Amino acid sequence: MIVGLDIGSRSIELVGMKNRVVVRAERVPTTFDPLSQCGKLLEGLRPDILVGTGYGRNLIERLALNCECTVITEIKAHALGAGHLFPEAATVLDIGGQDTKAIALSNGKAVKFEMNDRCAAGTGKFLEYTAGVFQIPIEEFGQYALKGENPPEISSICTVFAETEATSLMARGEQPESIALGLHKAIIKRTVNMLNRVGLRLPLVFSGGVANNPCVRSLLASAIDARENEGLLIPDSPDMVGALGAALHRANS
Amino acid sequence: MTDSAHREMWEKLDLDLEAHNALLEVLGKFYGDIYMSQQNRLQGAEYLDFVLSEIHGLRIKELREAQAEGRKVVGTFCVFVPEEITLAADAVHVGLCAGAEAGTELAEQLVPRNTCALIKSFIGFKMAKLCPYTESCDMIVGETTCDGKKKAYEAFNEIAPTYIMEVPQTKTGAARALWKSEVLRYLAEIEKLTGRTITPEKLKQGIRTVNAKRQALQRLTALRAANPAPISGRDALLVNQISFYDDPARFTAKINELCDELEKRIEAKDGIAPAKTPRLLLSGCPMAVPNWKLPYVVESAGAVIVGEESCIGTRNTRDLVDESGETMDEMIDALVDRYLRIDCACFTPNSERLDNVAELAKATHADGVIHYSLLFCQPYSHEALKVDKTLAAEGIPMLSIETDYSMEDVEQLKTRVEAFVETLA
Questions:
Q1: Contact A73/B412, CB-based, under 8 Å?
Q2: Which residues in chain B are contacts of A75 at CB distance < 8 A?
Q3: How far is CA B410 from CA A98, B43, B317, B414, in A?
Q4: Long-range contacts of B394-397 (CB under 8 A, 24+ apart)
Q5: Do residue B423 and residue A112 have CB atoms under 8 angstroms apart?
Q6: Which of B408, B409, B422 sits opposite A73 (nearest CB)?
């Protein structure tokens, strides 16, 4: 079995493949002890090859597994995973726990990419943090924001300042749903900028945990003049794309 | 590097001994991790290791011995200060410490927070009493290249008197006339400082010495076009860094020896990395000693650096001074012309740099270019966009990196650089 392991800042995903077919797909939170979490995912598995990716990719060396271990970056992993699920993909957007990546593809290969640098502004962490301000579980935050109307402009995508801005908008009596929508719009604005910098071409595959958020999906679709399944392609399990790509890296060769 | 033999000297220079020892310790460890860990390194690297290990020791001792003989020490921050003139007055020309995070909090009392790391570094080194070079100088020369430096020297002048050369921002006839008057003003200032008259013979000798140094570095640049790459980018960067503070004649001889060794290596098809290793050119801001962060990240990502298009690289070594001049006037004109060919991003327009980057990428057989801008460096950040366009038209991939001296973004840098290298494979 070839195993892809995507060790992200918020969650760790495992995809196991045999003969290019996915036979296992699992996910656990990263927690403060990612190494044991990886151990849990791998329990009972005997991979022939393990491919690590994501922020914590180099941790796989410390798993002390009796198999060939190799690493690739999350850029390459998402490019491979997205290209496998949607061979027509021209651009990939991955919004994960602490970074956002825009990747231009050519013949299924990453040719140009952009990612945020040292600040996690506008990523999954931003949504998680601001959802907390509304006391809404992150899984429901997108649905909640979709109820908003005439969203106020949120000028900051800095997580800390955006919270301050949201709080003062609440104090002014703005509808919380609308403020939530405004926060989502702030992310989209920044994301589209990044997509344009790599020369956005459709169809765009949207991967990463944030692709589960219906408000981000819908705002993104209108911002890039597309519709879901028409120009904007979203995998069934967007958070597994990195791990899938990692497994494919060796399954293809 | 924490040799107590130099303690007395550092005390006399009024360094903060405790902080200075801590700095040398960090530097030593950093050097060990980045340099001594390399496999199949050149024999000539012994010279580099030695000079670096004595960067604040023996070399400072030499400067003090020169001063005891009545020679002066001139400290600079920029490749625009004509070393030929300094040497013609028997003075010593050194680059000042600006490549490490030091005294940042102190520096931020004199310059705004959003100032580039290089500027904060030289101010921090002075304020924290950490740079024996700055403390050994009889004269410090600043220059009006970017706005950040220009204004920083005003503040720096309050703690360390700084002579300022006005570097023009265009290359028109009027700009050349201004630059010539600045070169002549510098010459007069150096004569005043040293009490010596710069004769045509002395100036000619100065020009020859610096040309020979640049020729040795040009030779190194040319040899790096070989595949497999005969020397690591880290070592080549170190050579360029050392060129700013070691004795020029000794440096030239040692680098020529190192190039002889490289020629043998190339003949034997021996390299620092296998022939199929992706080759990258670094382009952009200078990397002052000990700023090895990005080169280390790049070469740990499975690539090899084959050139540095920067002031601590080809921007400083590409052009020689025409040696045919005999009279003072002819030689000054030759100097003025040579220095105005520098393609610093402070010029507008600066289109020759775009051609030079593309040319160097081709000459070194680079598979891609990494453009490096220091955070808050407007001139190079602007040009990153132009360089990207130029290289795209040539079909050469480019990755743009903006960073500073801190280590907080190393993991993100690794991801970017590794991903860039993956796209080249």
A1: no
A2: 415, 419, 422
A3: 15, 30, 30, 6
A4: B394/B358, B394/B361, B394/B362, B396/B358, B396/B361, B396/B362, B396/B366, B396/B368, B396/B369, B397/A111, B397/A112, B397/B367, B397/B368, B397/B369, B397/B423, B397/B424
A5: yes
A6: B422
For residues B143-158, give the mean pLDDT.
97
- The Cα B305–Cα B296 span in angstroms is 10
Percent over 70 (pLDDT), chain B: 99
Q: Which of A170, A193, A192, A194 is nearest to A182 (CA)?
A: A170
Residue B107 distance to chain A (closest CA, Å): 23
Facing residue for A73 by CB, picked from B402, B408, B419: B419
Q: Tens digits of per-residue pLDDT, B156-177?
A: 999 999 999 999 999 999 999 9
Cα separation, A222 vs A200, whole angstroms: 14
Stated pTM of the model: 0.94
**For B44, which DSSP code?**
T
How far is residue A166's CA from residue A154's CA, in Å, rounded to a whole number? 8
- CB neighbours (10 Å) of residue B72? 20
| Fold topology of A88-234 | Nucleotidyltransferase; domain 5 (3.30.420)
Class of domain A1-86+237-253: alpha beta
Residue B258, C-beta contacts closer than 8 angstroms, at least 6 positions apart: B42, B44, B45, B47, B220, B239
Q: Write out the two tokens for A220.
A: 């993104």
CATH 3.30.420.40 segments of chain A? 1-86+237-253, 88-234
Across the strands, what pairs with A14? Answer: A5, A26
Residue range A28-57, pLDDT digits in tens: 999 999 999 999 999 999 999 999 999 999
pLDDT at residue number A118:
67
Element (H, E) at B162: strand B162-165
How close B353 gets to chain A, by Cα (Å)? 23
Interacting residues of B347 by C-beta distance below 8 A, sequence separation 6+: B169, B170, B171
Tokens of A233: 């392609």
Helix (H) or strand (E) holding A106: strand A100-106
Would you say residue A175 has pLDDT above 80?
yes
Q: Which of A3-17, A53-67, B205-219 has the lowest mean pLDDT?
A: A53-67
Across-strand partners of A113?
A: A103
